[in-house]
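Long-time lurker. I teach an intro course on protein structure, and each term I like to show students one example going from raw sequence to a predicted 3D structure in token notation. This year I'd like something fresh instead of my usual example. Would anyone be willing to generate the tokens for the chain below so I can use it in lecture? Attribution to the forum is fine with me.
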Amino acid sequence: MKTLQPGLLKPLAQEMLNSTKFFVIIFLILGCLERPSIALELEFFGNNFDKPVLTTHSNDSRIFVVEKTGKIFSLNNNNTEKVLFLDAAPLITTSGNEQGLLSIAFHPNFVENGNLFLFYTAKNGDNTLARLTVAPPSAKQVDLQTLEVLIAQEDPASNHNGGMLSFGKDGYLYLGIGDGGRGGDPWNNAQNLETLLGKIIRINVNHASGYTIPEDNPFIGKDKILPEIWAYGLRNPWRHSFDRETGDLWIADVGQNKWEEIHWQSSESLGGENYGWRLMEGNHCFLPKKDCDSDELVKPVAEYSHKHGCSITGGYVYRGKAIKDLYGKYIFGDFCSGTIWSIDKENNFEMHELMQTDLNISSFGEDESGELYVLDYRGTVFKFTP
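-- Reply from a regular --
Happy to contribute to a lecture. Here you go:
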């Protein structure tokens, strides 16, 4: 486990070229002088979005930007065509600051079956997973009449909804859900295996309707444990992702008052991990404040204190071709400080600061070829370029 040290790395240059193109050039010495430096740009890709929270793709050359307020826009790779793909506002509530349309995921065979999955807070406040069918899959707009609700998890508070949807290499759908909100997990939901709150769940949606439980889920057939649960002990896993090459799972869990943390799960995992909340915040006892029993808990591979930010935004392992020095490194950031870091799994999860920005980083995203994007919650999308 590596903890960021203050002033470990500093950018050498940062400039604003004009009002429509944000361009950051940064040279970093990674660990020692003989290592090559990394030259990066954050290049303007699109703007005028309303609280964007996700960028993703559908394996058919389109890129999608999700707004928390309910709209999804499709763009082509050159951002020359912006089309309203779906307006889910009639489904959601945004009365709480963390409520709204939080994530979408296209089925790996979307170009054939047209299946699109949404995670949102419904009008009644439930954390809701639903399926839409785009017919034909190449259609420029979605009909809300095809909506099928798969899961509606009652939520006792408006915050800590988590919300990331993604498909693993196994073809199953993974969803991260927060602990139910307020502060300090007052209901102890993250450690309660009879609720989906504070969990990563894993389900099989490869059906015309509904879902089933994968036969190798860790708690299937166990008394008083929900079989959808894949891992637990999470506070607010706002963003997780799979390494598209290895299948490893990276989970960024938003902390309480002191520590932000990242968990890594091998593609060979059988599930069932307990990531510690609310017993621990990062590597530190939370409740109780001292002498917490941590022997059975899975510790984070990296953490940083609130000296460096206040809300972690998980990203992706870079597998694109444009920036060879980033290849294989996990890239993530902080919503409050705008700092972007990398973690090198092959070097004992070593953590390095890549750049300081003035962005409110709400999410990262990948396109079809594995190139990386970052979203500013104030309305703009940028692309990582060399």
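Some talking points for your students: The CA atoms of residues 201 and 321 lie 32 Å apart. The first strand starts at residue 2 and ends at 3.
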